[in-house]
Amino acid sequence: MGAWKCGGCLGGLLIPLALWSIIVNILLYFPNGQTSYASSNKLTNYVWYFEGICFSGVLMLVVAVVLLILESDNNYKGCQSENCSKRYKILLSVIFSALGIISSGYCLVISALGLIQGPYCRTLHGWEYAFESTAGRFLTDSSIWVRCLEPAHVVEWNIILFSILIALSGLQVMVCLIRVAIQLSKMLCGTYSVIIQPGVI
User: Fold this and answer.
1) Among 28, 34, 37, 134, which residue has the least CB neighbours within 10 Å?
2) Burial of 16 (0-12, 13-18, 19+ CB in 10 A)
3) Across the chain, what does the average pLDDT equal?
């Protein structure tokens, strides 16, 4: 029962994770606080997938709010019995938790791809993806980060922010997976108790 009651706590946890995802994604558009690179489209292409703003952010906020509403004690109006209401809310909770897994998983994958690809920056050869051919090996070799001349410290900027997005979306995936497990446990355990005790109303 303690794990089941924790479902509401998990739904509430998704809200700060979603808000931070939005903030971190927005920061990716402004290396070192400068707006000129976004306006001239000189950013890595993966920031334009809006993974942290739309999917791990706004969509996750919607999921979190719905899950919190479902955890309330109010019965669903379309049901005439408390048992019907509980089953309906469990089903909706599983559906929206699955939606949360998909949206946060999308953010996780896109952020990982952006991290591995590296930043779009100005090198001695012009604007290019300076580390695209390294298959992510540049992440552990800071000596080659100097290839990016502009924006200043863009490599560190991208690594830190994409890593934070990966962590945030990863936590969202885990929270939603736990919620699915909790709701399925409610469903299965509830069905089992009815089967072994058919006379109990």
Assistant:
1) 34
2) exposed
3) 87
